Amino acid sequence: MSSLEYGPSDLGAYGEPRIEGQASAGAGPMNTLERVAQLVRTCTDCPLGRGRTNAVPGEGNPQAEVMFIGEGPGYQEDRQGRPFVGPAGKLLEGLLASIGSHRDDVFIANMVKCRPPENRDPSSAEMAACTKYLDRQIELVNPKLIVTLGRFAFGRYFPGEGITKARGILREKDGRKIFPVLHPAAVLRREELRPTMIEDFRAISEILEGGIEDSGMEPVVTTPEAPQPAQLSFVAAPGPAAIMVAQAETSTVNVEEAPRPEQLTLF
Ligand code: SF4
User: Fold this and answer.
1) What is the tally of structural domains in the chain?
2) What percentage of residues in the chain have a pLDDT greater than 90?
3) Is the CB–ligand 1 distance for residue 113 below 6 Å?
């Protein structure tokens, strides 16, 4: 059996692939975020554990109202053991600042906690093996809003749908509010997406203040008097629903499938 093929007897308590001789997180309770992080740092439940320098459990405010979920660690994240510390992380921090927030205010995690080789996409088996940690982090933080960054995190909740059409539309799944946005790395690759990303972040503030309700598949209502991003805050209400969330681009191209510049580590 190859490293990516698992039979029923190889599945652990959470349905994750179990690799012989390795401890599963199911062996111990994950009662705190720190305990989850400890287990992640020693986890070898999927092949990604073999190639990492550091696992990247995730970090942030344990009582955050907003939890961001990305795809997986990149080069810088693998070296530092922290999420979103490369170029995409800098962009994320700038977007948070544009709405009066900071990365310490939110919780940031990824679908997989160890870097896929050469920043390749994580496999379904790897995401399945790792989901027990993210599941528990979500339970422990219990955020008011989950913001998915990019198509893999969006696919966790709405498999088979395209992020290009879904982004910027508040949804609900399993009792949680889900707001999909593009991955910052996609914005770095395609500068023309930056205004869309900025508007989606402005919508995050509005959602938290109750100005935007779950709209299912419908686009969010727009008004012409949107405040400037610097006026917005996770705490201070920006006023009546003065936000414009652009509907998805008409292009059917999946922006995250664009070629990746080799000189940048974007995740
Ligand atoms: S990616 Fe997740 S499941 Fe795989 S070794 Fe790392 S922590 Fe464990």
Assistant:
1) 1
2) 67
3) yes
| Residue owning the nearest CA to atom 5 of ligand 1 | 49
* Euclidean distance between CA atoms 39 and 23, whole angstroms: 9
Q: What is the pLDDT of residue 249?
A: 32
Confidence (pTM)? 0.75
Question: Coil, strand or helix: which one is 146?
Answer: strand
CA of 142 to the centre of ligand 1 (A): 22
Q: Residue 136: give the domain boundaries.
A: 8-257
Establish whether residue 36 lines the binding site of ligand 1, counting it when its CB lies within 6 angstroms of any ligand atom. no
Closest protein CA for atom 4 of ligand 1: 46
Compute the distance from residue 88 Cα to the ligand 1 centre, in Å. Answer: 22
CATH number at residue 108: 3.40.470.10
Does 187 fall in a domain?
yes
Return the residue matching tokens 């629903």: 241
Q: What single string gives the DSSP state of each residue in 10-71?
A: GB-TTS-B--TT---GGGS---SHHHHHHHHHT--SSTHHHH-SS----EE-TT-SEEEEES
Is residue 41 in some structural domain?
yes
Task: Give the per-residue pLDDT at 210.
Answer: 85
State the pLDDT at residue 213: 74
Residue 3 lies in a domain: no
Sorted by sequence, the CB contacts under 8 Å of residue 31 that are 6+ apart come out as none
Q: Would you say residue 39 lies in a domain?
A: yes
- Nearest alpha-carbon partner for 254 in 172, 193, 179: 193
pLDDT at 153 (0 to 100):
98
Residue in 132, 96, 95, 98 with CA at minimum distance from that of residue 112: 132
Per-residue confidence band for 150, with pLDDT thresholds at 50, 70 and 90: very high
